[in-house]
Amino acid sequence: MHPPASELLGWYDRHRRVMPWRGARDPYRIWLSEVMLQQTTVAAVEPRYRRFLDRFPDVEALAAAPWEAVAAEWAGLGYYARARNLHAAARAVVARGGFPGDEAGLRALPGIGAYTAAAVAAIAFNQPAVPVDGNVERVTARVFDVRDPLPGSRARLAVLARGFLDQALVRERPGDFAQALFDLGATLCTPRRPACALCPWNAHCAARAAGVQDSLPAKAPKAARAQRFGLHFLLRDREGRMLLRQRPPSGLLGGMAEIPGTPWRLETPWTLAEALPQAPVAAAWRLLPGTAQHGFTHMELLMRLAVAEASVAAPPGCFWLPAEEARATLPTAMRRLLALAEGGAGARDDAGANGPLLAEPASPVAPSGETTAPAARRGGRTRRTA
DNA sequence: AAAACGGGGCA
DNA sequence: TGCCCAGTTTT
Questions:
Q1: Could you tell me the pTM of the whole model?
Q2: Domains within chain A, CATH numbers bracketed
């Protein structure tokens, strides 16, 4: 049995969270928020959403913008395919004269899958759809006591969630119902220690009745992350500009800028001597102490940094950028590398206006003793090796 | 069906 | 330190 939507919507009308994309019906704003919120927390999105909207106020402005401007605005948000697809979809929407008004039409746009199509259809167009995200999966798995593990149970959970459309109230307020499920999952029906006592559906929850709410939804075990190693080359000229390179349009960090370097290979860290043939230019490269570490979904990346100064023409595929602009454009993994040049372990992302970067004392070029993987540390911080 | 694809925050 | 987050695309 599906619990009554009236009880959830009554709770939502009293306790709904206030967020910048709520209230308006503008499909552009709803769409933008949904894309930014893919695998990204509300807290992380809010300031970036305002800033993005400030810079690209409507779909026409986004469609007219060059990719470089969109990439710079997205830098640090992750999953850069989202930005590429967003840009392409904006151009498609302008070309066809506006947003598609139903789920199937939305689903055909790049970067819009089953979830986002349902969310925009329900919230912006009042269409009868139930978007199934992580929150809805969790709420549904608990309400119906679905014990099969994710991701295998995904299809079954989606069918159960869609069953709420049998209630007339859900068909009348599909956008509110969807967001009520999000809010319930985010504030009460949380992954750990759900606040069942406060839940408007607690009397209808099968998992709670069985006392298994804390262990649902079950998850299949995940694969371990491999380690990869890279060595990068930071070239600066006399004005403090940095030599950057554009990554290929698809794949990891696709279309984003990077500090030129070796490929990221398994098993073995690079020595400077070994990496030198892959430097962007010939120069007096000095290997800095320390390793920048960055965790991706599927691997752990460990990078070292060599530095040099030269004022030369940018080689093919590379370009010079003022330090401040480079910092703003680079994805987080590359900013961590930059922190090595800026003075090491304590360096922070928001470490103020940087003039010419401070050079560290050079370490001997010798293959450092660090041939074994350094102890894992919290994803991303810059670490010093002794 | 499985893997690729970022980054930050929190118990 | 592992898990989670308003998922989508490619293989």
A1: 0.89
A2: 5-215 (1.10.340.30), 226-383 (3.90.79.10)
